[in-house]
């Protein structure tokens, strides 16, 4: 109806005018109608590949975002707790090392005094040894009964070992007394 009205009133063909104006406009913008059509086709194909719009994506994103924030907070709490535990362990290790060293020194002092009393002479001491390969520490008992040279307890005779062990036990009891003590098969 509109095309007929324009033709009767103005003696113009509306589809031709539309085509002419469109070409003028495209020429002014520097757009080629062929390339514009191919671009439109390409964009429609890309839009088709995207597929349907997921309307619940916003809700899923919010849920996942809340879950992520919760997990990040939990991770932060765990890292803080781990660091606190590490500090407590270091503190306990320092305290234990200090107390062990103090007790070791006291026991060694008493051991050097008790050993000559039980043996009627000689000397003995405790030494801390460290195995660097294994990262372990230990205690070595060095003793010299009267008339012998200074040596490790493992090189002494059975009776000398037993008497050295008893003197070490008495040295420990002098540092940290016990209300009673049963010594059964001391020589073993």
Describe the fold and architecture.
This protein is mostly helical. It is 66% helix and 11% strand. It has five helices and three strands. It has helices spanning 2-10, 14-29, 33-50, 57-119, 158-175, and strands at residues 123-131, 136-144, 151-152. Strands 1-2-3 form a three-stranded antiparallel β-sheet, covered by helices on one side. The chain is rod-shaped and about 145 Å long.
What would you say about this model in short?
With 188 residues, this protein is mainly alpha-helical. Helices cover 66% and strands 11% of the residues. It contains five helices and three strands.
Q: In what order do the strands lie side by side in the largest sheet?
A: 1-2-3
Question: Oligomer, anyone?
Answer: single chain
Mean pLDDT: 85
Structural class comes to mainly alpha
Distance between the termini: 124 Å
What's the alpha carbon Rg, rounded to whole Å?
48 Å
Structural shape: rod-shaped
pLDDT under 50 segments (min length 5)? Answer: none
Strand proportion? 5-15%
Largest sheet: 3 strands, antiparallel
Topology as H/E string?
A: HHHHEEEH
Helix content range of the residues, please?
Answer: 55-70%
Number of helix segments? 5
Give the tally of β-strands.
3
């Amino acid at each position: 109806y509109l095309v007929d009205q324009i033709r009767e009133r103005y003696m113009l063909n509306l589809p031709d005018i539309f085509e002419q104006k469109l070409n003028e406009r495209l020429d002014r913008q520097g757009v080629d109608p062929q390339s514009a059509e191919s671009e439109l086709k390409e964009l429609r194909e890309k839009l088709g590949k995207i597929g349907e719009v997921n309307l619940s994506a916003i809700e899923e994103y919010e849920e996942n975002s809340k879950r992520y924030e919760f997990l990040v907070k939990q991770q932060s709490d765990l890292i803080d707790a781990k660091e606190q535990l590490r500090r407590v362990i270091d503190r306990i290790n320092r305290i234990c090392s200090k107390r062990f060293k103090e007790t070791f020194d006291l026991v060694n002092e008493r051991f050097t005094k008790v050993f000559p009393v039980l043996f009627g002479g000689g000397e003995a001491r405790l030494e801390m040894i460290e195995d660097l390969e294994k990262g372990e520490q230990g205690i070595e008992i060095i003793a010299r009964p009267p008339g012998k040279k200074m040596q490790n307890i493992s090189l002494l005779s059975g009776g000398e070992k037993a008497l050295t062990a008893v003197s070490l036990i008495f040295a420990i009891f002098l540092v940290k007394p016990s209300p009673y003590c049963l010594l059964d098969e001391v020589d073993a």
